[in-house]
Please model this.
Amino acid sequence: MPEVNTHTMKRELSKGEVVIDNVSVRFTSRNVENLAVKATSVKIKPGEFVCILGPSGSGKSTLLNCVAGFVKPSDGCVLVDDIEITEPGPDRGMVFQQYSLFPWQTIRENIAMGPLVTGRAKGDPYEVADTFLDMIGLNAYADSYPKELSGGMQQRVGIARALANYPDVLLMDEPFGALDSQTRLMMQQNLLDIWREFGITVLFVTHDVDEAVYLADRVLIMSAGPGEIIADISIDIARPRGIDVMSSPEFSQFRNVCHEKIRAESIRAFEKQTNKSGGKSTN
Ligand code: ADP
Ligand code: MG
Model:
């Protein structure tokens, strides 16, 4: 994968503060209420790389969707740079696990879409798209369609498309979950390069401990439902981080801390379940 070339992409570094203030989310289906996120508060500094780590169903996507503006909190609120989030906006870019590119548009058109619609990027939208194509090293595919690209390439386009609006916050929901481990590793390194160049705030959801520790300044661990943050761990590993950092003693230490918190939480959730079923084994 090529070096990231972001020569014209410096942004205003003081922007991108995210405050999640006492957010709860309840969903009701068939008259049954489910508390997906429970009274969660956290403050994320501009430019921080934060991973939200937790088991499936712990409310990670729901919390991220509150920041994106796709889900409205039942209680509490989310503020980005002191403005309450009520809907999606171009100040927040989103990357999903499924590449979600428009299949009927070329790669260049997909990336140019945001600049065309929002006008946040300065200059001609197609020139902006070309700059970002350059950044992800896919200029040769400008006129190709998404189905002609591999999964990893499509996800690079997804990231470029999100960044082409010059957002202050990048929201990523298990973006590399569908990729093979080699591609995933390259994507992680590439993302760190992009993040370093942009100085953008990143909220990255994953259920993979190694991915979280490798990428993050801070790992927030969410409990099994109802989801709440049960640990906030600063990953004090020097940057830039090459892959070799993953075999260092300090990396193992942080990995163990995360695993321990998750294990303790799984035991707690299991005990809660067995208490509910009157202590009877389900085996
Ligand atoms: P995660 O991303 O950690 O796997 P989610 O945020 O997707 O967890 O889900 C948390 C809980 O909220 C789950 O119990 C899930 O079934 C429920 N949930 C999520 N989205 C909806 C929705 N749109 N309607 C009803 N329930 C939902
Ligand atoms: Mg999810």
